[in-house]
Write a structure and sequence with these properties.
The structure is a homooctamer. By secondary structure, chain A is α/β, with parallel strands linked by helices. In chain A, helix 4 (61-72) packs across helix 5 (85-94) and helix 6 (132-144) runs parallel beside helix 11 (236-246). Chain A has helices spanning 3-14, 20-27, 44-48, 61-72, 85-94, 132-144, 161-164, 167-172, 186-193, 214-221, 236-246, and strands at 33-34, 39-40, 54-55, 77-81, 99-101, 106-110, 121-126, 148-152, 173-180, 198-202, 228-230. Chains in contact: A-B, A-C, A-F, A-H, B-C, B-D, B-H, C-D, C-E, D-E, D-G, E-F, E-G, F-G, F-H, G-H.
């Protein structure tokens, strides 16, 4: 349950604006709610500062809608990742204030915009045109979590002057997310230029021995720069999330 | 070159205490110094806030000593990682104010202690007794970089009550480093308890399908908790470094 | 041939209710029956206590129907696994007393319900919503084999309090089946809580370095808990079968 | 803490034979004891029916001795696995009532023999001469845990009549452990002969595409017999442990 | 060019029944014929005793037809492997005396039946129902190459008595082809029963860690029986071919 | 920007035929041009002698058209690789002077034919009929880059006399590109015959343990001939490009 | 038991030269003999035409000596493979008529030379100097089993004229064994030249992506020649054995 | 045989300075010489412009000495690669005019210095200190083959300014060899700066997921720069050889 909503509720009880019975009913699922196909972890936003995020892949539109509805009663923000347009349209036809971002394959519902909570600017870079959807997933996640986000796309190492042209913005970043497929070299180069933490995201872009992103992943884990940590292949959401909580230390 | 030393030097020139010629000579390698077998990156501490760290494995004691000597003239701190006792003893016999930490397999030289620069406490957890050396590498790195560090060892998931017994310390952490081999499950469980960033370190501890740490690595990258990013197998140094720069955002 | 049916037949011969010729004809395939595309092992239920189970994947609906018909004349129970709705519908249109369970992708025919033969309760747990079909396959298999089965779904380690909430049921189990994809950490945590055998089932749920379930499989085989043994990826049937025969020791 | 010892202690307190202070002191580490390099889980024998087992590989003889000493004050049985003769000799020179079993690479300390608790006979089979040490580890573990154990060695499938010669013993088994390297075919053949659970142990015996045991492991997981579950490569201990707890259902 | 046809042609020239010019024209492509997308190796039947076989997969129906037409003018037999029904129908609609065998996915054209040239009977065994198409490919290939072939299907090791029931035929074989997926154990067991060469064919049948046939392949290469050699996954044709030329030594 | 076009432009400015303002406007994107989804590297043809090549796979027809249009204003040649007919038709319907080569899956636009710049003949060989598309990609790339190119298809090592028949042409080559799938043996054999550099291209042709081209790749990297270097699986373009720049040394 | 020895024994019984009691005692282990660490399969030479062969690796010199002694009482030939000089010397010091062949790492004991039983000449080829030990293992095995064997070493494909120089011998072979490491191309080239069966042996010779012989193995399994079957990496013994039994069809 | 030596010999015959018999004897091994453990390919220097190079690993010092002696009678240059000091010392003690280069692990014998035959300068770059031995192997090979060679060591991408500092030399290169381990990013960055061919050499330097050089290899094969081709892991010799023959086009 969102901490702000919880405080409101308890404030209302203290002020006599809400009866104890009503509040108790509202809070009965504070730990988690069991809805047959899911144990929704309503306690997560209290414990972790951000509610559970719904992983759309492998769930039906009905399941997603059902989980969202229960979360919307208790949270300020609800996110769904990895959801394609067809499923998203089904959800939006029922929950009309949910917005689908096709370039990031995400659904977003916000009771109200989250205020900026991050300390500096998160900069998201990507190596190639085909890496952009994953980069957009990272941008959108960090933005929704209350951060100033800027992006630089298509600055792969084969024409490294394109990267240096953005040196000012890169130097200003408090946290960087670097997205790359194929040989996955961009995070090492970027991390060598800055003193800030870099979250590297390998993508499955490529063919032959790109091995579905394993080559980029392994290259990033072997980075000769020390200020790099890595998330799963194509996990733009995880990188944006990690950048957001780092930006709040 | 250490920023503080650079400022001192330029201050001395401004005040006439150091001649331009002497200062120029001292600064001639500011970008990097080429010593046959290495291009020492003296610019790194200006650019990245911490000097280059020497990767000991695969270098001779002579090479390590040579690089250290050149760095000690320009930096406040010099670290060597992955160096065994035999090589370390050779280095220490020449550079007597260098200290060897056998439990972390590291050499440390400090002109003076770095003041505490991190905002909160970094907590390092490890799953098994055999993971301790990697955990110690992380602890020592973060400490030398100016952080308050606490550690909790041998709290693997097979007896999960041992972990919960340390819940207060875990909740207090600003950044967590979690070290585990075998099935690599500890980072997921710890990350599910906190809102802070977790740097996960897989180790090569185990046998059979531990696959030299690959299983733990892949498990950590697949963590169902979003506040986890991962470094290379057995890379305790990298995790400690990453935690230190995150702790300074 | 089902042992009970065999006893009935021989009893009838002894009592003169069935002629020797008729009995001989009925028993001629006792070892196995060759029907062009299959050697049906009718001896299995005598030898192993449960008849051969038909692996549906890669067989035509006609082949499945043919094998089922021959088995139904000799057994009390016939199971088909990994059969999708389209094929199942074809089979059911011919063999009308067969029931299709779409959530477990199984066909079940029972001459009569098998009586409860297991000693305690088998508890099936699954980590995520997408693991449920495999978990259902395990539940249905163990139930048909004459066991009391209970299930707990969506209790992944990222919100471990959801698991502890079911501690009573977990403690009561005589055998546990634990189903998980991604990092496959749940069996280790569950096994650490109980003294009973845990059959772990990795699933192919996940992306990137989940490697189609290999990561979960390897993690489970590396479990730091000793009371864990593992079956093939997505093999819910095998886990249910194994749990059932353990429950009968 | 061993349940029997715990009952004795509490009985003594009730009878006034032990003061509350003494008992409290003895029980202060009931949950776990922290000895710098290990969190010893003294609670495990209460929770799981058997105390923590010490994984010797990667620990020093001093560490092993230290952990054993603390456990011996609280348990009836202490086991160490994967310990070579040199380390074992160091431990035995200090803890003289500990016995080293070189063929199983295990150390065993028993306050008194555990009574037979298993319901039937556990039968351990191995395919080749080189698989025997792993098979012995399984035998010894199950024996120490209070079971009747019999073994059949060197009955690989290339001369399958050797296996059938032991059919009586195999049919009598309540649980079977089958150990094999190379192509790992023995568990499938044995499991096809019986109705009881088979715990399969792949070994790293072989060369070329035995791949250090991975081929045997994968073959066993793909077994066309359903009554097979698998443990990690060379994990004779785990198989013996699993067989012991199954034998007690 | 088929040796028999070549002899006929040269005989006709010697007897004056064919002019030198006509013979020369017919023989001009004796080495190979270049038809834009293929170098047809007409010399192969002289050199190797059997003409080139067309690998259908990845070729268009037009390409296959074109190659067949040129070969039919010079050979007694033309085979195409791995061709699905749709492509085959297109070829047959043009070359009407070609026969499609859908159960082996092969096209066969024979000017006249090849006489029996093999010394004994080739026996083809397969482990499961799903392995049958690959087994049929082996049977058909060996038959077309002039051998007596017998087959035994669905005799996997989980019910090993089914195999022993065919012991007479197995003992009579001069060469054996054994086809199996999943754990690939059947070739080891069969080879342990006989003194004759066994050609093992792994199939891609299975799921999870069958790894598309790699597990069966590796298991067969690790066979503890010495009279086993292996061909590529699903390569029924190669096994039949190899058995045929061995049978002719 | 094409060096020739740049010289023309600057010549026009010098001669007063173009105003400084117009030239400046034309040159403003000389470094790169940012068009939302791509940073087009217009500087590449100055720096590398050939403009950026568009990797078609994973880009929409609209994106490809947009990038081509911007490049066509500044370059003499624009190439797109890995584009299927459907997407190509969309591009050609807008940019009518672009030519689609379906056998190489490439789009080519040339302001004027590039003059022959290579010193000798580049010879492209391929092992099997199915390798031809990749070989054609290499041929077309090297031709467009201004080279004399000849090709020899379907000369795999199973009928090695077909290869020797082309010995004259092979001996005349200044650079060779050798394309092969399956066991990838052709480059070793060809390289053993000549003193010139061989660029080897593994293809994904094959089945079973061809492993999508990995086997051919690894075989080529292990070539016992020293004059072989290798590019990614199916990367006919890269091989043609590399051959072209070598041919110009 | 060797068939000839068995006939002698029974002949002696028939002729009254041996008592029934003595014969019975001698035959009591006809099926197999259990000597604690091994089930010696004395029945094998009757069943398979050649006695069990002892795999030396992983056995102690004592175990090897013990098994040999029991076999020498019942067989005409006893072989040990993969035994290094140190162990061999220990065996020979006890069993003085055993001969060690260091170049093949084998021990051979022969009561009398086996007469030539193979129909033609077995030719063993190897690609490089480092492959010779494996080739020698194949030669020695086939020789001991009663075959005419010839060898051609160091004829790798990088200088293919060396191979063609031996064309006469190659054409004369009835069975060929081809041994190669690195890219493993030699079997394909040789098999393309002949109509006889080729047994290919990959070796672990090489570095980098030779992957311990996996690359050669996979290349051989992908051979574009159909008359190739493959044995495990470095398995010279198996190839010689297979060639010997093929040569006897 | 070296072409120059061959011309001298034939000139002497023509001039009557050498008898036909003597010349014939000298030329009898022109094709190859068979010395038991090797077929020395004396024809190679005529065919390929450079004699066979001896791969030292896995050969005895005696074998190396034997091969060298035979080659020294026919060639101007003899190279041995991958030979450690101990073996090298044995060779040099017999062949005193052979020189060992320990930093490149190579033996070199030159009748006389080869004149410079390459057109431009070959530049060899390496990423880290530990990559230097492989880089030195490339330098020495190219030098011996008659090229101007320059080297730049320790310019990894984590401090990319070190690389740009050498831009002039890089721009002047006619061919580049780039050596890197870990993430293998350097070749992409260098290739993006130049229009010349880059031969990339992955090294086995690193730990964890460097996977013995596979990660660097795969990254280089996936390079987003087109002017890169790759050789085997640690194959400095092959890269130097390839660069030398390219430099001579």
């Amino acid at each position: 349950m969102d901490p702000e909503l919880l405080h409101q509720l308890l404030g209302n009880v203290a002020a006599g604006r809400t009866s104890v019975e009503d509040a108790a009913k509202r809070l009965q699922h504070l730990s988690f709610e069991d809805i047959d196909y899911a144990h929704i972890d309503h306690h997560r936003s209290l414990r972790k500062g951000f509610p559970e995020v719904i992983f759309g892949q492998g769930k039906t539109a009905d399941q997603i809608t059902g989980i969202m509805q229960r979360m919307m009663s208790q949270e300020n923000t609800v996110l769904v990742t990895r959801i394609d347009r067809q499923q998203a349209d089904q959800v939006v036809s029922i929950l009309s204030d949910v917005i689908y971002h096709p370039d990031a394959r995400m659904l977003v519902w916000e009771r109200k915009k989250m205020p900026i909570r991050g300390k500096g600017t998160i900069v998201v870079l990507s190596a190639g045109t085909s890496d952009i959807p994953i980069a957009r997933e990272a941008c959108l996640t960090a933005t929704v979590m209350g951060n100033q986000v800027e992006s630089i796309f298509d600055v792969g190492v084969a024409g490294i002057h394109r990267l240096f042209d953005h040196k000012d913005l890169i130097d200003r970043a408090s946290v960087l997310v670097v997205v790359a497929g194929m040989e996955g070299a961009l995070p090492s180069v970027v991390a060598g230029m800055v003193s800030r933490p870099v979250i590297a995201v390998p993508t499955s872009v490529g063919y032959g021995v790109s091995l579905g992103g394993l080559t980029a992943l392994f290259a990033m884990l072997n980075s000769c720069s020390s200020n790099v940590a890595v998330v799963n292949i194509d996990n733009g959401f995880g990188a944006g999330y990690m950048a957001a909580i780092i930006n709040r230390i």
